[in-house]
Amino acid sequence: MSTRAVLEVIALDVEDAVAARAGGADRLELVTDMAADGLTPPAGTVAAIRAAVDIPLRVMLRLTDGFGAGGARGLDRLAGVAGELRAAGAEEFVLGFLDEEGGVDLGAVERVVAVLDGCPWTFHRAIDRAADRDTLRKQLDGLPGLDTYLTAGAAGGVDDGLPVLAAEAARSGEPGYEQRIMVGGGLRLDHVPALRGAGIEAFHIGGAARPGGWDGPVSVAAVARWRSVLDGAGGV
C-alpha cells in the first residue's frame, strides 16, 4: 500500500514523548494515570512535551475513570480544563462521553467541543461501550473538529472487534463514517495485515510500546518495530 499508516503512541511524560518520536511515531496521545485507563495530564506536562517534540499531540479530556462527564459540576471542570490546556499550547484533543444507557452524551460532547473552538479531536474507545455504534456515529456527525474514532471494534479488544472494524472501514464516506478509524485496544502486530487489508491506516499503541509495562518508559526499539511493520519493511 502506498499510503503511510499513522502510528500514535501514548506518552505520559517528556521521556516517553522523545522516545516515541525517535522510534517513528507520527502522533502522541498525552494522558496520565493509566490505572484509570488514561486521564487528563497536567497543563505543565503538556507544555513541556510540546516544547520537547515537534509531532502532533492529542490531549485526553477525561477527569475520572469511566465514560461519564461527571454531571453538571464535572462538565464545568472539563470545560475549564480544556480552556487551560488550550492556553498551554494544546491544539488537538481526545474525548468521549456516554450516558447511563450507553448512548452518547451529546450535550456533554457539544459543551466541551465548543471550548475547543474547531480544534481537531478524536472520539475515544467510549464507542466500544456504546449501546449502538451506528447511532452514536450519526449523532456526532458534523460536529466541528471530529476527525477520528479510536476503537478496537469491541469492548473486549481487537481480537473480538476485527469484523466490526472491517465493516466500518468498508462504509468509509457514508454519513457518520467520514472520520478516520484509528485502531487501538489490545492491538498486536499480527493484527496489522488484516487491518491494512481492510483499508485501515491508523494505529494506536500504549502497552505495546513499553516492554517493561506501564511502570517503564516507552521503548524506541518497540516503536521502531511497529513503524517498520506498518511501513511494510519487516515481517509480523
From TrEMBL:
It comes from the Bacteria. It holds the Pfam family CutC. InterPro entries: CutC-like, CutC-like_dom_sf. SUPFAM superfamilies: CutC-like. Belongs to the CutC family. PANTHER family: COPPER HOMEOSTASIS PROTEIN CUTC, COPPER HOMEOSTASIS PROTEIN CUTC HOMOLOG. This is Copper homeostasis protein cutC homolog.
